[in-house]
């Protein structure tokens, strides 16, 4: 794997807007793409994992949710790396996961979100 890959839900307008922000403002060599268009088998990841959270897949590391966002920011330039480091700090990380889960459950209500953005109910 030459470059890391950051996967997001391409069926979700909110997620797509966030990915467009990354593409425009966060310089990285990572491939940022909808998981629906990725070769998940080659990346060693499942659709279920992708439906639950954004994913970071690199040769030396795999992460999800805010940890994946931290890895993406850490793989960027000097402007964004401190934000990635901050997101990895234990107290921030402890708050980031519940916040991420709340956003994931409510992303269909976020700006740009639609009913197609709703995370499937696993209960």
Note the topology.
Layout: E1 5-8, H1 13-25, E2 31-34, H2 40-43, H3 47-52, E3 55-57, E4 62-64, H4 65-74, H5 81-88, H6 90-106
Protein name: Thiol-disulfide oxidoreductase
Pfam family, one: DCC1-like
Describe this protein's structure.
The protein is of the alpha+beta class. The protein has one domain (5-117). Helices cover 47% and strands 11% of the residues. The protein has six helices and four strands; from the N terminus they run βαβααββααα. It has helices at 13-25, 40-43, 47-52, 65-74, 81-88, 90-106, and strands at 5-8, 31-34, 55-57, 62-64. Strands 2-1-3-4 form a four-stranded mixed sheet. α1 links the parallel β1 and β2 (31-34). α4 runs antiparallel to α5 (81-88). The protein is globular. The termini are far apart. The mean pLDDT is 89.
Shape: globular
Radius of gyration: 14 Å
Count up the helices. 6
Please state the structural category: alpha+beta
Helical residue percent?
A: 40-55%
Share in β-strands: 5-15%
Calculate the terminal CA-CA distance, rounded to whole Å.
Answer: 35 Å
Q: What is the total domain count?
A: 1
* DSSP, total strands: 4
- Mind describing the biggest β-sheet? 4 strands, mixed
Mean pLDDT across residues:
89
Strand order of the largest sheet: 2-1-3-4
The string of secondary-structure elements, in order, is: EHEHHEEHHH
Low-confidence parts: none
Organism: Phytohabitans aurantiacus
Pfam families: DCC1-like
Protein name: Thiol-disulfide oxidoreductase
InterPro entries: DCC1-like
């Amino acid at each position: 794997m030459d470059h890391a890959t950051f996967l997001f839900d391409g069926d979700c307008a909110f997620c797509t807007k966030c990915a467009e922000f990354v593409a425009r403002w966060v310089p990285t060599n990572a491939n940022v793409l909808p998981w629906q268009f990725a070769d998940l088998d080659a990346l060693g990841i499942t659709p279920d994992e992708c439906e639950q959270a954004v994913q970071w897949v690199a040769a030396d590391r795999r992460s999800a949710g805010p940890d994946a966002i931290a890895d993406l920011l850490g793989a960027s330039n000097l402007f964004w790396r401190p934000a990635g480091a901050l997101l990895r700090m234990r107290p921030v990380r402890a708050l980031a996961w519940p916040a991420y889960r709340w956003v994931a459950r409510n992303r269909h209500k976020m700006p740009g979100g639609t009913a197609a953005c709703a995370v499937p109910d696993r209960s």
